[in-house]
Amino acid sequence: MIALIGYNTMQIGLYGMFGAAAQSLFQQAGINLPWWAYSYIAMASIAVLGYRQVDLSAKVLTLLVAAEYLCVLVLDVAIIAKGGASGLSAAPFAPSRVFAMSPSIGLVFAFACFVGFEATTIYGEEAKDPKRTIPLATYFSVVLIGGFYMLSSWCLVNAIGTNKLVGFLGGLQDPTRFLFLMANRYAGHWLSLLMSVLFVTSVYAGLLAFHNSVARYFFAMGREGLLPQYFGKTHHVHQSPHTGSVAQSVLAAVVVLIFVIAKQDPVLSLFSWLTNVGTLGVIALMAIASFAVPAFFARNRHLSDGIFSSFIAPVVAGALLVTVLYFIVINFSLLTGASKLLSYSLTGLILFAAIIGGILSIRLRAADPARYKSIGFEKI
């Protein structure tokens, strides 16, 4: 249930960013539509892709992500080749810089960058050799995401100069234009324009990825008896978790409509509020999973791979993740710009999901102990 809330809020919140970015892009071509029109156009296409088999969605996703990576790497190379604004510096990695301010808000954004790496596991049943390919894909994702963001962030800091960055960003009316301004300066207008297009497609890629994740959580929970059984069936032609896909599309359409009627800002409200709830949910998931690992191996010692991987590492990870969760909750109003009452209400969605999940588990355990015991023991 935490996964459903987390990934749904993440996915639906991205419609706000997509609508605003698409509106800005097409206004340059003289097309003036409200942001929500672009959001609903994207929603319709994602509903079709999600309803069909994963191969189609994966091909679209791969094409978009490859183009985005390439575009940013071109900028990285241009900055390095020109030596940045005043020579390349390792100052951004100095502890005095890293811990100059409270790291809690930075940690939230860092975790948000990694959200989705764990999605490799939900494709386990569609992989030919999940015990080999899923761990490899997960480790590769973590290294690629971490390395790519670290390199690109370092390049962008050097592009303007370590001592000028804060002042320069503070002087921008829209700080999100920083990347495009640096592309203009170091590579030319063609790259800036391409990046503007790819920014829209990158958000679209995120929408598509999170939609697929939500659909598969609906499917898994339906199959195991935690949700109605019709969620646990695949399409007779596409073999996709079509019921969960439809449910996610309908939910997204309703929530976006509420924000439209309430005349809320697509970025400052829809995007900011819901994606931060999504990040909170995914971190909570990882924390719970970390403590579930030693609990499982304590009962099934014959399956353990060793004391470090089965007990020490997950407990340490869980403790660190709980610490991060604490900082997120107490700083949530700073992250979202919402009032304290609204902020705590939004974070309360995760607690609400956990309570509902606990109730569903207890009910299933009482009604069908054998089925409850089989949860998680599917193909992988």
TrEMBL record:
GO cellular component, one term: plasma membrane
Location, primary (coarse class): membrane
Source lineage: Bacteria, Pseudomonadati, Pseudomonadota, Alphaproteobacteria, Acetobacterales
Keyword Ribosomal protein: no
Protein name: Amino acid permease-associated protein
Subcellular location: Cell membrane
Species per Swiss-Prot/TrEMBL record: Acidocella aminolytica 101 = DSM 11237
An MF annotation (GO) of this entry: transmembrane transporter activity
Membrane-spanning parts: 12-29, 35-54, 61-81, 101-124, 136-160, 187-210, 243-261, 273-298, 310-335, 341-364
Alphabetical keyword list: Cell membrane, Membrane, Transmembrane, Transmembrane helix
Membrane topology: Multi-pass membrane protein
Pfam families assigned to the protein according to its UniProt record, in alphabetical order: AA_permease_2
